Structure prediction request, 218 residues.
Amino acid sequence: MQGALRGRRWIVGSSNHGCWLGSYEHNQQILLAKYLKEGDVIFDIGAHVGFYTLLGSVLVGDSGQVVAFEPVPKNLMYLKKHLQINSVSNVAIVEAAVSNRHGHGRLSSGPSSSMWHLDARGELGVQTVCLDELVLNAKIPPPNVIKMDIEGAEVLALNGSAGVVSEFHPVFLLSTHGIDVHQSCCKFLESAGYHLFPIGQTSLDECRELFAVYGAAA
Prediction:
């Protein structure tokens, strides 16, 4: 109904109503529009049903690419349907959870479909992938921007992307879950030369949504 996705089609009920209204996470949408340009590559890690995948697809255009990572079958069904009904052709889907290694893991469900999380005792078995293995071996293109929201596994995913971070310095749009995870993510990014900025009217220590830009201030 508004924003960069105005006029696109969305399955009502697949996620937060703010998605089809166009108001979902407005500040994050503004940041992506600022840092993504035609021809860029964005990783949507924790793609859920595809809001940011669709947004990234529009912002990078036909010459760019979105790589969407999502391990949960029902979410994947909606994600693929959203791509189909919008005739999207610049998205590659990786049906796996991003972690610090290639292999297998387990997920536990949460109160909503967006809150599945890695848990050794979880009910759903999934594949896990490591960004360094995928990118540095040229299985997928290097990212200009990484959006990551994976319900507490952010530290594992960052540890598995150290080579990508060091070589390509992507901009991060990051959700963190829990104070320990937040502090560890901040420490990782700051030690890699990033400047960190809270999203919303709060401090970096108190926020749980941040973006990170390598080198110079945003």
In short: The longest helix spans residues 73-85.
